[in-house]
Amino acid sequence: MLRNYLAAALRNLGRNRLYAGITIAGLAIGFAAAILIGLFVRDEFSYDRFIPGYQHIYRISAIIDTKGSPPVETYYSPVMLAAALRANFPEMEIVTRSGITGFPPEVRHGEITGSEQGTLWADPSFFRVLRVPAIAGDLADALDTPDSVVIDRATARKYFGRDKPLGETLLIDKHPMRITAVIEDLPSNTHLTGNIFESALAPNSVMLDPSFTGSLSNRVQTYFRLRPGASVAAVTTRFSDFVDRTFHLKDSALDGATSVKLEAINLAAIHMHPAPANQYDKASGDPAVVAAIGAVGLLIVLVAAINFVTLMTARAARRAVEVGVRKAAGARRTDLIVQFMGEAFVYVLLAGVVGVALAELALPAFNALTQRRIHFDYLHDPLLTGEIVGVLVAVALLSGAYPALVLSGFRPAAVLKGGPVQGAGGARVRQVLVIVQFAVLIALLLVAGSIYRQTMFALNEGMRLDKSQVMLMFTQPCTDSLRQEVARIPGVEAAACASAMAMALSDDEGTATFGNHHVQVALEPVSFGFFQVYRLKALAGRLFDPNRPSDTASGETFYEPLILNETAARKLGFAHPADAIGKSILWYGNPDPKALTQAKPAQKPSQVIGVVPDFTFGSLRAAIPPKFYTVTPPGPTGDYFNIALNVRLDPNRKPETLAAIDRLWKRIGQGPVIRYFVDQFMLRLYVDVVVQGAVITACAIVALSIACLGLFALSAYTTERRTKEIGIRKAMGASSADILKLLLWQFTQPVLWACLIALPAAWLLMNHWLQGFAYRISLAPWTFLAAAVVGVLIAWSTVFVHALRVSRARPVGALRYE
User: Fold this and answer.
1) Would the pTM of this model clear 0.90, i.e. be above it?
2) What's the confidence (pLDDT) of residue 593?
3) Phi-psi region for residue 167, left (φ > 0), alpha (ψ -120 to 50) or beta?
4) Which residues contact 790 (CB under 8 A, 6 or more apart)?
């Protein structure tokens, strides 16, 4: 019996190759897209789970409350926090730290030189907590000596040409470091960003620098592993008392904090924990967005299944005689249902095989699109294989049931008389299915378009400065003499140094007072010419002038004078920017990071000489804070701050200008060239948004392809079913244009209904998503109208050929139909 059913299914498939091909193609594309989306979602929710014992590993996070500003969260810790935790919490089996080295160090071996941004300091116990896979050496004691370093496989191949260069020496910022272990390249689904781990015992380690002891802005992360049987809840309930005893906030200058609350975030929850707005490592995930992307994958499978149902029922009339003969010969309805369900399984099985192949072929491009290293190893992953098989069976059952019930329900007497087949699939049901398809498509188009617009806004208008043709070159320090040499190169229109704080790469805060107004401010040292590089003009007052000696701070007046941004002027109580000019502001801060003390520095007066528009190099997820801009003095003290050379280039001379800068860089021994155009530099803040937009856009393209196939099937069915009606209309005087408009309007109606469903749903979704940005686009009505128009045009272009062919047919041929 099963053999007969299979033979009938294959015979029917071969007899209708065009429709079978469309059916299988639609299902295969849907399955491939769903597989890739499923892999992406699984990757998002499996961050750091490759580390043994991740369930018992936690990272410390701090929520800091400062006077005059809303609370902010940071995952950076004071250097001394680890020792304090060890002394106060016996439940913590091991406490360890990692710290960013600051400016990316120069790494050298022989003639091979590079600048490695993924270089971290790490305690000797670091790999005893975070036990990543090793390919050479013993990680348990790999960082026990001051000159030890652990590198990953890619770094080993880059500098040594082999995987296991144990005992070899790597020069890191001219410090010889001995390779004691090599780890496997970290997967993309980890919050860890390092490829070189230097021992925190090294003499130049920030972990040993007492000046950083109390700072929360030194880029140190603290982890701990719980002892077996210990409760993290019992630990966190004692954090409040621990903070009071440890930080002494009333007498401390701990980044201006008035209160600090510590939290313990489990390793597996770090990626999905909301990222602080001022953090600069990997972008965090958003569970709601990831769940929405997963829902899109399910919708794509649903759209593909709808296509299957539409195509099967659209061809129902062609199989009516077959059903009638079989029933007349004694076949029961159950037998026919089993036969048609078997055909559905054959279609789905073939589509599943093709879909898996398409997913494998598309995976490299998908990885490039999402910046991941996702693997599709279904042969060695029983769970993944079971999920794929389960989806295929579910689709076959759900999408095959309705056509089977319809086809098996024909009455033999009516069919064998040659009359029209009634109820061949239900016109209303097919209309609903097409409405669902286009609702999904239009919603995806709107979501993709809104994400793109917000990304472009964040990278352009949202920054509020002219960054075209501006290049950043990172060097430590960025000296005034270097700035002047670069500025003299033909093709350089302007050059200026800026601090890490000004480029939003680190934080330095102080408190400012004017009258009754007390404001927490961001302190951002720059050099002369900084505002001119970005073509910023003062709203009131003037900019820093190198011809005015008083504009350079020195001695007791280290930060004299000041330029404020709009927000700082407003929060200090000035109704208009001009009102701030000439006023004396009392404030304090930490002008030299190496001179940080636990005592609050005394307030000092500085004169406001200018107010500039609000602008930022940080993320638009957070509001632009009040900012004080100062000119750092020339020489070692001031140069310590400046790490970025901002260069505006003549667009007509860019290649030769870049080559000349590279030659200068090499001649003066500045180390490897680390440069970005500002667009590239800013893009790092929105990697998650770009990836989400890319995935949604790809889904929209897939949904478009499948929806067009579905509409093609519906148009084929409709034109076939209405052949005689159209012939009568033409015989009664209807023109080809009248018939064409009639058919196009019929296919336009479901798209308009789809718009009524999709537009409000997309508006609600994107309005919620945009709330995560302090500065955002408006959901303009024209974007929704454009999506509706695109949906209608897609529908028309899909059905136009069928409609045109039928409208131009001769009535005599149509009246002979049936």
Assistant:
1) no
2) 39
3) left
4) 442, 445
